[in-house]
């Protein structure tokens, strides 16, 4: 009986040349892992993807390293991401992604969704969006007071997130 040795693919990265070329003509913003940015025509440009056994700190670091070297190259980028710890670790620890080369910000939709999982309130949901998207100090202060009045614990939950990574008001360079 012949024995066949099968090897399996454990990690795979793909980026197509035309997509890379198109990416370099777009605004310097990317979204990662279920954070979808659309253009005015409601289109998404898929630039690259990876197939991995599981999402881990190692696989995200590997993917972001590949993306930086083969796709983004030396381009300065803003990155919108969810709260996956592997992505956050890679963005904070890989030299290729540290500011000023890469700016990472959390997806407001994911922050709002995570808040709703913990504190089910339509009013909180609305104010979370409002406070994250305002650029005006008086509105920021107003929404902060409203969130605190509804649920102080929910405000403390939001306040532990780095302000510059999800409040437009605190994003000084509008990344």
TrEMBL record:
This is MULE transposase domain-containing protein. It comes from Lactuca sativa (Garden lettuce). Pfam families: MULE. It comes from the Eukaryota. Keywords: Signal. Residues 1-22 form the signal peptide. Residues 39-114 form the MULE transposase domain. Coiled coil: none annotated. InterPro entries: MULE_transposase_dom (IPR018289).
